[in-house]
# Entry
Amino acid sequence: MTPSSAQNIYADEPWNDRHLSNYVVRAEKPFNAEVKLDKLIEHFVTPTERHFRRNHGPIPNLDAETWSVTVEINSLASSAPQRTKVFRLSDIQRLQQFEVVAVLECAGNRRDGLKAIKPVNGVIWGAGTASNAQWGGCRLRDVLVAAGMPSNLCDPFYETPRHVEFAGHGEASDDVHYATSIPLEWAMNPLNMVLVATEMNGHRLLRDHGFPARIVAPGIIGARWVKWLNYIRVQDRESNCFYQKRDYKILPPMANSSNCEQFWPRFPALMELNIQSAICRPSADERLQAWKPYVVRGYALSGGGRAVDRVEISLDDGVTWDLAKMYCMNPKSSSSNSSTSTGTSEDGSEDDGSSDGSDRDWTARHWGWVLWSFRISSVPPDCSIACRAWDSGGNTQPAAAVWNYRGVMNNSVFRVHPQVAASLKSHM
Ligand SMILES: Nc1nc2c(c(=O)[nH]1)N[C@H]1C(S)=C(S)[C@@H](COP(=O)(O)O)O[C@H]1N2
Ligand SMILES: [Mo]
# Structure
């Protein structure tokens, strides 16, 4: 491919749908942009124009009228012929429709923290590649059952581990297309809410987010949420694509660019997200006032349906920790007139929509993120803030980042050292 034709594949990008003032653009071709952290946490359900965008190639321009997804079921029994069924958009929309609020996080979120240790292979991201959206569509399991799969998980068919592979339309930088897979039993469990999604936040998907249909796999890394669906295949092996086999894995610390080929086959493709949290305010360019109160804010999330059960803050570099307030839906606002914005209540009043945990159903699956706040009553001139979250599996974040070649799954304790402007000590 000549350099000029390589440019041309990016001639039809949806620039009008990209509200660039909300983003830090990490690469234009392919378009990779994370959300400015202070803009990220003003809403519990992230507005679409504040949702990060992560692409491995140009954005396909698909026609909803002619689009279809081909579902193939391979090797039902070794002698049985393969089954194939084609679903148009209207077929997907005729199946029972579901909605789920789920956080989408890129496994490369916070890669900058690993790059700070040693070079890594991948787009460098801060903490702005996680967003919480309301996704709508039909369940993947219902599509598979309509294509001939047994609906009962006790069926002998499920005694052999199988995989469901998704491939997207369009070009991808490292393989013939973008494809990946997840275990079939995960997708077939209706409680896991894996969707063939056609809607995001009540509207049809934007092109950047996979129009007309994408996979939504709550609790699983973003790399498996394949956009611009082309085909879905049930098979007895995981996807053979680059993005499954030679990417999105935590390689051991001796693996690097010259020897990684020997390590890729030995380690599993990432699936469930790990426990994560980030401080979004103070933001990078924010200045705090010494000896004044300040409300620290951020998000926390976990994978596999595990609930974030606490967020802790340390102001003494991890010696002691205090509990932050958590919000599992839009916080009520005492001073703002927008019901969808987070409140700026700084008086610590109880009725701000926060949850102390006693009202939460820990046995349910948790797919959304939580937002949190922590009030510092008097900001010291030398201020350091650290946060870490815990989930219902007893997992928390490591004190120090552990480097891996692909720079994935960095969930070390999140620390900021904001600038503090001197001011007279008040008597608050
Ligand atoms: N077809 C296709 N699907 C894809 C990708 C891609 O490049 N091509 N990127 C994946 C990755 S790595 C992530 S994190 C999410 C990002 O989804 P978003 O751009 O809607 O935020 O999409 C996933 N699905
Ligand atoms: Mo990703």
